[in-house]
Structure formats: structure tokens, C-alpha cells
């Protein structure tokens, strides 16, 4: 269960990013819409998808609630990631947010049934065992929702501005790369509201910022700014403002999308596999991967483009 949301004060608002449509799709550049695609049929009141070229942007789109994460978010996030992952022309993903903040975390009002009290309707199990079973089932469902980002076969870049608290940190921890605007504030806030963080921050952040920095953030629940975040490796780059961080993330995603998608996705698979394996096992894994995929049309195109002194035009085959 995540701290944050409407029960946590987050200070003054910063600049707005984008408007407030429901899920939308813009098809530009080389990208062409396939009739009846999952992205075109995706709808949500709290998320929106845009596509430009080979890059998809997944917007957290509940600006009026500072992107607090309620029931719709946890249900819709894996559907959005599945829709993006099913589109063969998409090669990289940006996760960004509309409104003054990336996310203030769990909507504690809407999700009150998870913290020991009755749900909004007053319904639910009455026994301690029943409540525990129900809470565990819901936590596992929410964990799986966040994990849908980590499991995406495409590179995912987070573009963070304003407050990124609790569940917001879980989301960006599941991304491959994180960028932030200068106004960004991060907090693993759970201990301040008597909760143990349970949606992935404690499991993923040791691989990103190390155990010591994570222990400090998780034990204290303190806020850190973008300068501290970049110094500990939580983010790769600090951009000037909210608009700039989205622009920078999209530019990085476009740069990634210009490479062989077969090689990029293979690199992500090898990196992911290596996190839980000794070096020797990781080397064995990548040897097997390349034995199967090295002889590709993309490799032929890369060699041809090099000889002809031009950019490669890759198909992922």
C-alpha cells in the first residue's frame, strides 16, 4: 500500500503540463495506425496514450487530483502497457504526467479499505483473517500493475516533474531510465504514515541507487530534490522545467527508437536477466541470445549503412 495521495500535503503547485483529454492517439511521422489496434481502443479516465513516430507517451492524466492513484489507475495501467506493447511499430515509451505533479501517490480516500478500514461503501470482510486475505490479494494486484511497466519489452523512460511520492516512486522505479525537471521532489513516504512500502520501491531501488541511499530515504520518509536525486543515480538528467523534461525524454526515446529494435529489446532482456544472475550466467545468457538473433536483417542493414555512410533504417527483423 502506498503513501501519498489526498491525505498528504504536497505544497504549492508548479506549472501545468498538457491538457486533460481522456485516452488519445496522435499518429505522426513514420507511425501508421493499424485498424482496430489495442491503443486505438484503449480508454481510461486517468491515463492517456499518445504516439508520435515510434515513441509512445503514457500520460498520468488525473491532474485535478495531482495524479493520486485510485482504483482506476491500478486497473488501467496494465491495460495501457499491454496496448503499447502490442503495437509492433512502437520502439520506446515515455511515462509522463499532466498537471502540476507527477503523482502524490496512493489516493488514500479511494483506497481506504487497504489500510485497515472499511471500503468507501462500508462493505468488505469483517473478520481479521478475511480482511488480511482481501488486503493481500489487492496488494498483489497492485504490485502486478506496477510490474507491467518493468515487464514491458520496450525501453521505458520516466519524465518526472513536481512531486513524485510513494506510488509515484514505485512507478518510476519500474522504468528503465528516469529524467526529472528542476522542480521535482521525490519521497519514499510510507514510514511517515505507518506503512511498509510494498509495491516495488524496496525491491527495485537497491539496483538503482544502492542499499544505503534507499535505507536513508525509506527509513526517514524525507523529501529529496532533483539535485540530490541525480547525485545518487535516481535520475540520469535534470531538465529546466516540466515541459523540458518531457521534451528531453521524448528526444531520448526517439534516439533509442532510431537503433535496431531487435538489438534494443535484446539488450533490455539481457540486462533484466543479468540482475538476478552471476556474471558467468549472464554471459551464457547473452551468448545464447546472440546465437539466435545476431543473423538479422537489421545487422545486414547496419553494415550496409556503415559502408554507405548513412543512417540505418531498421525494421526489427
Structure description:
The protein has 317 residues and is of the alpha/beta class. It has 2 domains: 5-257, 2-enoyl-CoA Hydratase, Chain A, domain 1 (Alpha-Beta Complex); 261-308, Orthogonal Bundle (Lyase 2-enoyl-coa Hydratase, Chain  A, domain 2). The protein is 40% helix and 13% strand. The longest helix has 23 residues, at 128-150. Residues 1-33 have low confidence and may be disordered.
SSE diagram, text form:
Blueprint: H1 38-41, E1 47-52, E2 55-60, H2 71-85, E3 92-97, H3 128-150, E4 156-160, E5 163-165, H4 167-173, E6 177-181, E7 185-187, H5 201-204, H6 211-220, E8 223-225, H7 226-231, E9 237-239, H8 242-257, H9 261-274, H10 279-293, H11 297-308
Parallel strand pairs: 2-3, 3-4, 4-6, 5-7, 6-9
Antiparallel strand pairs: 1-2, 7-8
Helix pairs in contact: 2-3, 9-10
